[in-house]
Structure formats: structure tokens, C-alpha cells
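Submission sheet (multi-component)
Chains listed below:
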Amino acid sequence: MREIERILDKGKIDMDNMEVPEELEEKLYKALEDKSPVKPKRANRKAVLAVACILILIVGYNLSSLAYYGKRLLGYNQVMNGTLKQLNELGRGQLVEKDYTFENGLTVILDGIMLDENQLLVFYTINDPKGEVDKAPNIHMFIKGFFREYSPQSGHGIINDEKTEIKWIHSFEKPSIFEKTLRLELDMTEDKIRETGQISFKIDANKAMGSILKQNINKTIKNGNTEIHLGHISASPTKTVLHGSIQNIVELARDQILGERIRPNNIDIRLIANGNEVPYQGGGMSTDIKGIRFHSDFDALPENLESVELFIKSFSVDRDVNKRIHIEGDKSEQNIEILEQNIKINNMYKSSGSTYVTISTREDIILTRVGLVIDGERISLKETIDSDLEKLEDGTIIHTRTLCFPGEGENYELSIERMTYTQPYDKTVKIPL
Amino acid sequence: MDMETLVRRAKQGDKDALVRLIMDKQSDYYKLAFVYMRNKEDSLDAMADMIITLYEKIHQLKKPETFYSWSKTILVNRCKKLLKDRSKLVRLDAIKDHGCVAELKENEDKIILGEHLSKLNEKHREVIRLRYFLGLDYKTMSRILKIPVGTVKSRIHTGLKSLKKSLGGDGYERN
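Outcome: structure written.
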């Protein structure tokens, strides 16, 4: 081996003595002569970006089609209105597909949910293998969350021809944004035996649809003795809700003390978007410590919003009146005005121990609590007879009817305690977009 | 200008800086190329090839301090590529390995060595030349050839053994 290394070492000496050719530098420069500087980092980034874009396009494109097939709630076509159908087509629902079966064989299948700013829609099926789903006992439901319970607001369902199932859509209050897992609580009582069940499900707040329009209105519209306060409007992809109030707690308390309480019956408000009326879905009113509040629900607003306005048609209220009108036996005909509403007393007659008072009012006016004070004694209304409607030339409908009070005497006073009437408003409020 | 500054400049496309980097160690590069190419012209060609590759790829070099081992690896690869391309034309074993002999004064040892070296497996011949002709240490060889130090050692060992066997036969007797 040493011999080899000796020989090899000689080779090294040769190498050590080797001189680098002088032309090396020139050769190196020449090699680089026509090379332009490469800036591949940039090019690479562009390439990466392009690839990323293509990937996003391809994946994104497919995701939406995946979502299309993956997230549609099937079988609800008939139950859904147009808006919901569209949203379902877009895969806006969140599939749950969990069920609970009661002892009697009835199954509740929670197919999915749809969540937005205004409501939580629950899509479920009640299945009865016996084919008597229409006769099945009612199942009460509510949703239990971590923070509180959410009650159902409205719902509707359709029974199939075989009567084996009902497809329901139920609207619940919108759960708190911090809720992650909710429980649909089921409660059924059959033959005095109560059974409860639960279906828990997760909600993905990220999939909740945001609002299309959220606008404070904050306007008070006054007419006659009534006023309506329009609070705010909240339009989400599934529905549009107008929130307002009639009286705050102070006004409510004052009226209560003065005996002038107002009980709202119905507010006729129409929502007009892009010149067309948005279908009315329902509404509600509540009286509590916060006063009298109301909400009117409409279908979702159309796309490409150009204008939104509220048309306040009328407001129907029931008010405390507590007025007594003296009626002379022979000069009974008289016009009276209560709360700016006209009431005409046509005549009064006595017959077989009863007193009859004929009155005429606008169709919408109803004396909801009325009595006849005969010689200081209040006699309650027994019945209303001879009801007759007459349409005037201006379109007003006059309602003439006869009130029957059991009893007769010398002194008569009509005691109008409460009265319902509709206050026309016909006012338009534009909502800024 | 220190080496890292030159590398940084070269990365920005400065040709002078790149040539400077090579010229600063011209002897190392040239000898390395020569070990493979065994003549002046081919060695210079290999280096020209190398500098083009360096110029095009230097942006990929993450650590400037590794410039020398990185560029030498490229040089070795260029050399091997050139040899391979040439072997397509002429079978490698058809040419006698003259080693570094040709340039120098002939002497029998070198002729013998050249002959026997050419009989070795390429990978063994390579390490033996780098080790003994250039005097590279194991670590440097490992870095340039991109093989572990252990492999370098074992290849040298095997190479020397085969060389001994070969020399112990017909060739060595001539001395």
C-alpha cells in the first residue's frame, strides 16, 4: 500500500506544480458574455401565484358544485317558498341528518338548518311508519342552547299522500352568535304518557348568512289619536323584519292610569321594494316592561335593491273610552264623536222588556265593551241584531246594527267603555339604502 | 471585498463578482476540473460550463458561505456530464487514463498509475484522485460529491485495494 501511496503522492506533486492557464479568466467572462441576469425569484413567485390562482379557480369552482350537491336539503321543495328554494339551491343550508325515534315508532328527523340574521330555520321530518302521521300527537319543540332557550316563532308543514311523513319548516329565534351546539328538545304526550327526546346539532356561524340590509328608521308616524314608531328594518336572505313600537312603558303606564289604554290590534304596513310589494309573512306584538312593541315579517328583499319603502296603510286599535251618552227616548237620533270617530245613534226602542239601540258606524268601528245604563243601572249588551252593511259612494262601508239590552226604564245612557277602530294612515316612509 | 459580499453581488447578477469568486480560488477549481478532465482544454470548458450554471442558479443558493462547496459540486457534475457525453462517442475504457501525466515530464510511475487508475471503477477513481492529487480532506470531498464522509472513506479504501491488486499484477512488475 505504501508503494501505491508513493506513486499517488507523485501525482499530487504534479498537481501542486500545475499552473492555471492564463486564459481562464477570459474564458469565464466569455462564457457569461451573452447571459442576461436571471431574476427567477420573481418569475417563480409569479408562477406560484398563477398556479395558486388556477388551483383556487379549479377547487373553488368545484367546491361550489360540491356544495350544490352536498348541502341542499332534499324533499322540501313543496314546503319552501321561492326565497328559501333559491337559497337551498345555493346550498345555504347546513345539513344535520340526525333523528330521534319515540316509543310509538314516530321518528323526528332533523334534516338541516338555515341560519341568518333574522331567524334559525329548522327543517325536519316527522315520520310515521303506520301511515297516520296526520293523527299523530303533537310534538312540542324548542331549542336549548348554552345561553338560553329559543322558542319557535312560526312553522308550516306538508303531509305526503301516503300520510307517512310531514315535512316541516320551523322558524326559531336567532340563536346567540356564541352558540356552537344546540339541542332540539322534543316533547310528546300520548295517552297521558309524556316522552321527551333530544337531537343535538352544531351550528356553523360562518355559514350563517349575513344581512342584506340593516337600517335604522327611527321615525314616529302620527295620525289621529294614535302613533306608530318605526324602529329598524333588518333584511336577511330568508326574511325581512320591521321592528317598531306603539308605546313605551311610560306612555303605557300613563294611559293605564288615565283609563285610556290603547290595545293595538293590527298594523297594516306594506313593504315596497323596487316598486313591488314584498309578500307579507306575518307579524307579532308584545306588551311587557319595554312597552308595546311589534314586528312585521316579510319575504326576503329582491336582489339589486334600488328602493325600499314602507307604506303604512292603517292602524287598528282598541281603546278605553269610558264615555256615557245620554239618549232621549223620543229624540234618540244623534251624532257623537269619540276619539275623532263618528258614531251615529239612529234610534232607540223598547220591546217586550228589552231596550234596543240602533247605531251606525264605519265598518271598522266596533264597540268592544258597551252597556246601557238604565236608571243608573248598567245593563250589559245581550246581543247584536239586524246587522246591515251599506256601501257609500266614496267607498266607505257603513255598518248599521241594533244592540239589544235586556231591561227597560226611564233614563238611558249608552256607556261606551271600549272601542275598536282603524285609523287610516296612508303614509309612505322611504328607507335610505 | 469579502466572499459573502461577492456572493450577494453575484446573486444580483453581477458577473464581475462571480468571476472574482472563481478567480480567487482559480487553482482549486482548475485542479479539480483537471482531475476529471485530464487536459487543459477540457478543464477550461468544464469551468466555463460551470460558471454559466452558477450564474443561472446562484439565486437558489441560500447560504453564501457554502458558495465554494456548492460551486465545486457543480463543477464536478459538469465534468462528469462532459465525460459522459464524450463516452457516448468513444467507449471510456478505450482511452487510456493518462491522469495528470500528459502535462508533465513522463516517468514510468505515472504511466503505470494512469493505466491502473483507468481500470478502476469511476467512483473509486474519483475519490482517489481528489484525495491524493488534490489533497482534499474527507469532509471537503463529502461536501463536493454530496456523499457522506463514511462513504468517501470506504470508497478510497476500496479504490486503493483494487489499485493494489491491479498493480500487484502485470503493471507493477514492470517497475
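Remark: Residues 213-319+426-431 of chain A form a domain with the Immunoglobulin-like fold (CATH 2.60.40.1640).
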